[in-house]
Records
---
Amino acid sequence: MDIEVRIRGFMMDPATNMPIIVLKDISSDAVMPIWVGFFEAKAISDEIDKTAASRPMTHDLTRNLFRHLNATLERVVINGLFNETFFATLCLRQGDEDLVVDARPSDAIALALRADCPIYVAEHVLESAKLQSTGTAEGPSAEQLRWFEGLNDEDMGRYKM
C-alpha cells in the first residue's frame, strides 16, 4: 500500500550539514526524512517558492518533454530503500498507456511539484525509514534521529538555499 505524503519542510542535518526533505504522511503524524544534495534541494525549494530561472533547469526541461510527448505525470512513488538509499518511480500516462520510470526521489519530488501531482511512499519504505537503526557513515542511526521527533513548525521551517 502506498501512503500519500506532502513536503513538511526543509532542514539542515546538524550532524552532516546536508539538506533534508521532510515528508509527512497526510493521514497521520508520521514523518520521513530524506537526505538530498544541495542542487536537488535547491530545485525543490525553487519550485516551492515559484522562483523562475532565466532558462529551463533540468526538471523544467523534463516537465516540458512530458508535455510535448502528451504524457502526464500522474504520481510519484518512493518505493524502495536499499543500503540506506531511497528509490522512486515516476508513474506517467501517455494516451492509453501507463509508463513507469525509475528516478531518484529528489528528482521525483521536484517533478511532482512541477506537475502538481501527488507524492507517495510505499508503506514498507515508510516503516523501514522510521525503524532504521544501523547508523553508518552514510546515514544516522534511529537514536541519532531522536532530535527530529520533537520539532515544532518553526523548527521544521523550509530550508532556504
---
Amino acid sequence: MNATRRQLWVLVLLTLVWGLNWPVMKLGVSGTPAQPAHWPPLTFRALSMVFGLPVLAAALWWLKVPFRVPRAQWGEVLRLALPNMVVWHVVIILALQSLSSGRSAILGYTMPVFSALWGVAVYGDHLNRRQTAGVAAAALGVVLLLWSEFSRFGGAPLAALSMLAAAFVWAIGTHLLRRSTSPLALLTLVFWMTALTTAVLVLLAIVFEAGSWRRPTSPVAWAIAYNAVAVFGFAHAAWFYLARSMPPVASTVSVMMIPVLGTFSGAWALGEALHWPDFAAMVLMAVAIGAVLWRR
C-alpha cells in the first residue's frame, strides 16, 4: 500500500495533535506533579465536546456538507458512535486520573494490535510478511513501554484494564466504520457521532459530578480549548478519513507514533520519568510505521 501525499500530511498532523493531547488531558484533569489540581474528568470531556461541536459545525457549513441524516441512517450512526467514541471517551478520561499521560497513551494505542488481530480472526484479513512484522514491532514496542510501569499496576489495576478494554472496543469500532455502507458524508457522520457522545457525557457529568463543579483554572481552560479545536474540531474527522481511505493495517499501525509522542511530551511537560524501554520503543514504532507505509 502506497500512502498518498494528502494521507501522509493528515497522518502527521493527527499524530501531533493526538500525541500532544495526552499530557494536555492529564494537565486538565489532574494538574502537574508539582501542582496537583483535580478537576471533574467527565465535565472536562463534556465541555471540550460542547465547545468542539460548533467548530465541526462551522467546517460543515464552510464546505457545504449537509447536516441532515435520513431516518433510516440513525441506527447506523448509533452503531458506529458507541464503539468509536462513547466508550472510548468515557473510559479514557476516567482512567487517566490514575495513570501517567504517557502510559495512558501506550495502553490506549494497543488498539492497532487489537485491530489487526481482530481483522484476521473475524473478517479473514490477510497480513503479508511485512505487515506481520509491523504489527509484531508495534506490539513489542508497547510491551517495552509498559515494562517500567508493571510495578505501578498494583496501584491502579482497574484503570489499566479499563484502558485496554477501551482500546479493544475502539478496534472493533474501527472495523465497523471501515465496512460501513452508509451513504452519509464523512463529516456529517463525524458531527452526529460527536453530538451523540456529547449528550452522553453531559448527562453523566450532571449525574455524577454536578456537586464538584467549579470555575476552571487557566490550565484547565486552556486544555479544554485545545481539545475543542484541535481534537474534536480536527483530529476525529482526520482519523475517520484515514480509517476509511487506507487499508486496515496501514491506518491503524501508522498512528502508533502517537503514544511515543505522548510519552515524551508528558515527560517534558509534566516531569514523568522515562526509562530505556521508552527509547527502544520509539525505534520499534518507526519500524512498524515503515513496514506498512513504505513503498514496495
---
Amino acid sequence: MTSKRDYYEILGISKNATEAEIKSAYRRLALQWHPDRNKSPEAEAKFKEINEAYEVLSNKDKRAAYDQFGHAAFEPGAGFGGNYGPFDGQQRTYRQGPFQYTYTTYGDGMGPDIGFDFGGFSDPFEIFAQFFGGANPFGSRATRKPRYGISLTFLEAAKGTEKEINVGGKKKKIKIPAGVDDGTTLNFDEFYLTVEVQPDKVFRREGLDVYVEKEISFPEAALGAIVTVPTIDKEVNLRIRPGTQPGTLIRLAGKGIKSPRSSRIGDEYVRIQVRVPERLSRRQKELLEQFEEA
C-alpha cells in the first residue's frame, strides 16, 4: 500500500507555518494544479492531494491531531470522536458547464453546513476568477450567495444560540450551532455567515478545550479546600488538594466545548493562582515566623 505524503510537504511549508502561510500556499498550488487548467496526467491527483492537505492543516483541531499522530489520526477507529476524518461529512458538488468539483461539508442536515474554506475563495471556481483577472472561463455562472458577518459572545459561540439577522431587507431567524469558533463560515441555503467571537474575560479557548484561572489563598493551597469555579454551563465545586502549588492545572473532563462537526467534547482546565497577601498584621507575621521555624 502506498503511503501518503506529509501534508506540510505537499503544500511546501514548514510545520511552524502560520494560517496565512498555509492559505497562501494553497491558493498558489490550487491555481497551478487545477485539472481544468493543468492538462498534465497527474494534475487531478495532485489537486486532490493539495485539497486534502489544506482541509486538515487549515483546521486547528485536525492540524493538532495530525501533528501528534500523523495520518493515523484520521483512520477509521482512531478514536477522535465520530466523523473526524478529512473526508467525513456530506459531499457537496459545484457544477459549472462541463466542469464540476466535489468537496465535503460538515453538518447534520438540520442546520447550516460548516463550510470548507477554499483558501479565501468562496468556491473552487473563484480560483479561476482571480487567475483570469475577474473573468469567468466557464461562461456565465450561478448567482453567488451573499456573505454576512455576525459577532457573538464567547458563551453564545460555545453553547449555540438563535439570532435574527437582516437578509436582503428581510429579517430572518437563524440557529448558530454550538462550538463555532472565531472565523467559522456557516453555509445557509440563501447566504454564507462568517462568525466573529468576542474575547472573554473569564474563558480562553484552545481548540475544544477551555482555560480559566482560579485565585485561592495561601491557607487554601496549603491545607486544601473546596472552591467554586465557572464552566460554560454553570459554576461547579472543585476540590483543592493540600499542598497545591501555584500554576497547577486541574482538568475537568467533558466541561469544554462541543465540536460542531462531531460528538467530541473538550475539557476545561483550571489554572490555580495562589494569592499572597501584601500586608500582614503583627499576629499574622508571628504565626508565619512560627510556621517557618517549625
---
Amino acid sequence: MRLSTFCERLDAELRTSDYADLDASANGLQVGPRRGAVERVAFCTDGVRQTAERAADWGADALVVHHGVSWGGIERVTERAYDRVAPLIEHDVALYVSHLPLDGHQELGNAAGVADVLGLADREPFGAVGPEYAGTRGRLPDVTTSDALRETLESDLSTGGQAVQVLDHGPEELRDVAIVTGDGSDYVDEAAAKDVDVLVTGEAKGKTYHEAREVDLTVVLAGHYATETFGVRNLQSLVDDWDEPLETTFFDVPTGI
C-alpha cells in the first residue's frame, strides 16, 4: 500500500483536518515521504526513541502513535528531538500521529476504550475542545462504588503495576461517568455542570483535589499511559480489517505514570 493512501484512510476515519486548529500536535504524517510504501506497521502510544528503535528493529515501514514528536513546530532537530527522529529516518520508518482526534473518536478513541472496559451505555461526547470533543460520557449498567471502579480499571488497564488513585469526593453510589484520558483534570467543572458522578482520567494537577471536592465530584486517576493505549490498539484492529492486508504489531511500553 502507498504511504499516502495509508495516511489518507486514517485521516478520513479520524477526521484529522477537523482538529487542525485545535491541537498543538501536528496530527497525520509527521515523518516520512508520502511517496513511500507500507507493508509492516507498528502501533504504540508514545513516539519516542525507545519505540522508534523497536519499530526499526521489527522492520516496520510505519509507526502509528498517539504522542508524536511535533508539538507546535520544530525549530531544531537536535539532542532529544534528533535521537527520536534519527532511527525513523535511518531505517525509513514513517511516523503517523493522532492526538486529539484519537482521544475524541467516539468508537475507536481512548475514552471510548475506557468506556468499553466499564460497559458504559447511553454514551455521548464529553470534554469540549472548541467545536470538537476529547472524551465521552455514559452510564454504568449498575450503580457501583469508587473502590469497585478502581479495581476494574487496575485489572484491565496497562498501569505498569501502579495503583489507580481515587479522589473520593462524590456520592457513595456512582452511575454517571465522564472520561477524558491523559490529563483531563481541566474538565472538572464540565463534569459538575453535567451532573456527572465521577470523572475518569489519567492524571491530575495539584489543584484538582480541591476543585473536585468543592463540586462533590469523584475523580479517578488511572494513569496517563494506561488510559491512552486503547486508541492505537483500535487503529491496529481497523488496519487489520482493511481489504489490503498489512502486517501489524503493538508495542506495550507502560510508564507507570
